[in-house]
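Much of our argument rests on the idea that a fold can be written as discrete symbols. Part of our work consisted of pairing the sequence of a single chain with a tokenised description of its backbone. We regard such an encoding as a compact summary of how the chain folds. The amino acid sequence and the backbone structure tokens for this protein are reproduced below.
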Amino acid sequence: MAEEWVGPCRSCGRAFGEHEKPDANGWCAACRARVVRGSTRLAALPTAIVFLLFFWLITWSGLLGSRFMVVWLALAVALAFVAFKVARRIAFDLLRARASRARV
């Protein structure tokens, strides 16, 4: 188990307040929120691409006219949701690593 971080924020260098705790990597809540917002924005493009490719595949194969159209569309939404979660996690790790390298 990692030791608890003591000292200023590893990203911005701001000292922590009395009731403020760093995350596991020693970042303050504001720095972490900034990276989460950025990763959410970056994850939108891969999500849209996955959804459009799957929708194109459904249209191309003629499954939109089938009786199970709702199932195929629900599967497309579920696949886009998983793609969003994976893309956001990858973007979060990349942005955090990039910010950590820039600080050092």
